[in-house]
């Protein structure tokens, strides 16, 4: 899973940090820091956080099948 946040769009509402604190956190009052490649264990939290963003600044690419070895994809 890959996460990209449009930091020029982010307004610091911190809904993402509340819903997925292991992937998103506020640094100070306005700066968002985030993990661009959170573990798949956090998938549901990250997807909820992206959906809750009031300005839709979070893009989540699930990368399903693209990172898996060819043998794993064919099964």
Keywords:
single chain, 75 residues, alpha+beta, two-stranded antiparallel sheet, 3 helices
Task: Describe what this molecule looks like in 3D.
The strands form two sheets. This protein has a two-stranded antiparallel ribbon. A two-stranded antiparallel sheet has the order 2-3. It has helices spanning 15-19, 43-52, 70-74; strands at 2-5, 24-27, 31-34, 58-61. It is of the alpha+beta class. It is globular and about 35 Å long. The longest helix has 10 residues, at 43-52. It starts with a strand and ends with a helix. The relative contact order is 0.28. Mean pLDDT is 87; it is low at 68-75. A hairpin with a 3-residue loop joins strand 2 (24-27) and strand 3. Helix content is 27%, strand content 21%.
Q: What percent of the residues sit in helical stretches (DSSP H or I)? A: 25-40%
Number of DSSP strand runs = 4
Overall radius of gyration? 14 Å
List the strand order in the largest sheet: 1-4
Gap from first CA to last CA: 20 Å
Order of helices and strands: EHEEHEH
Work out the strand percent: 15-25%
SSE class: alpha+beta
The residue-averaged pLDDT reads: 87
- List low-pLDDT spans: 68-75
Inertia-based shape: globular
